[in-house]
Amino acid sequence: MAKKKRILLGGIIVLAAAAVIWLTLPPRPVKIDLDIQVGEEVKIPSTSGNLAGNLLRPASAAGPAPAVVMITGSGSYSYRKALQPGVPTHWKSAAEAFLEKGWMVLFLEKRGVNGSEGSWKRQSFADRAEDAIAGVRTLRGRTDVDPGRVGLCGHSQGGWIVQLAAALDPEEVAFVVCLAGPNISVRQQIIDDLVNEWRCRGTSEDSILKKEKRLKMKLGFYAGLSRLVKIGYLSRIINYDPVNIGAKVRCPILALYGEHDTLVIPETNVPLLRAGLEQGGNANVRVMIIAGAGHGFHVLPGKCPDWDKIKETIAPEFRAALDAWDPFSE
Fold first, then answer.
1. Number of domains present in the structure of the chain
2. 250-263 pLDDT, tens per residue?
3. What is the distance between the alpha carbons of residues 116 and 27, in angstroms, rounded to a whole number?
4. Which of 88, 91, 71, 69 is CA-nearest to residue 80?
5. What is the distance between the alpha carbons of residues 243 and 70, in angstroms, rounded to a whole number?
């Protein structure tokens, strides 16, 4: 019996040691579509390690130009494929809209992706916001950029990031563009996403209520534990709630949402955005819900489409909204 206990204890120690090693080892960097050339390859200095990026220049610019830093969403992702000719994506549409305005466009690779040092899996949202600000400062230091007209554009999780960056450093960020950017907490966004997924599968409302209740309990437990120890990437962001962020965003802001977005639902996010901005006295705000658009601003027939039958087409109102907005004239 004593021998069995020693074996069991030894097994537990080995598993615990393996878990500690796994949690402390730095995540491996990834290379994504590096063969796709995008503008000028640049390095952005930062106290947390250099960031890789790609700078796109407008066809013509009279004097120092305005500029925008593009911040991507969650996961190991690179914008490179999305910027290829003939590919209908929100990133391509947004970049083209900004370039036609005569703006410089700087895309930042996430940490651990394509030469950006570190790992996004070890970052909080505040860390990512500091990276966004580093991109802004780099552009503000260029002689071909107007330092007073440099802003941020973020999609999905990047929408959380650009609002936070503008709140943390209002003197640096001249404007913000949020593309399907959440204004609810991370926990609530996870719940909204799964509830809509269950609903699209045809799950009954009674079952959804039960599943949602269990999910809230699990997330609450994990969130509490995450305040003590970081277990996985989600533990670094699970307690983020932008409830006080909107009131600190004083710059002009354009916020676009998709009518059929089931990940960032306009009905729950838009009121929170408006309330925060109004609390801070920011009247330089334009909020639009793009008709028929999903999370990536592609045209969708509804909230639960047959993805195999969807032809990727960017909603025309998306590009029109970007073209019409001028943060420097309002």
1. 1
2. 999 999 999 999 99
3. 13
4. 91
5. 23
**Cβ atoms of residues 298 and 311 within 8 Å:** no
223: tokens are: 């969130």
d(Cα 291, Cα 47) in Å, to the nearest integer?
Answer: 42
Amino acid at 118: G
Residue 104: is its pLDDT beyond 50?
yes
111: domain CATH number is: 3.40.50.1820
SS3 of 68, please?
strand
The amino acid occupying position 311 is: K
pTM more than 0.85:
yes
Distance, CA of 257 to CA of 1 (rounded, Å): 63
Three-class secondary structure of residue 290 per DSSP: strand
Q: Which element (helix H / strand E) includes 198?
A: helix 186-200
User: Is 26 a domain residue?
Assistant: no
* φ, ψ of residue 113 in degrees (nearest 5): -120, 125
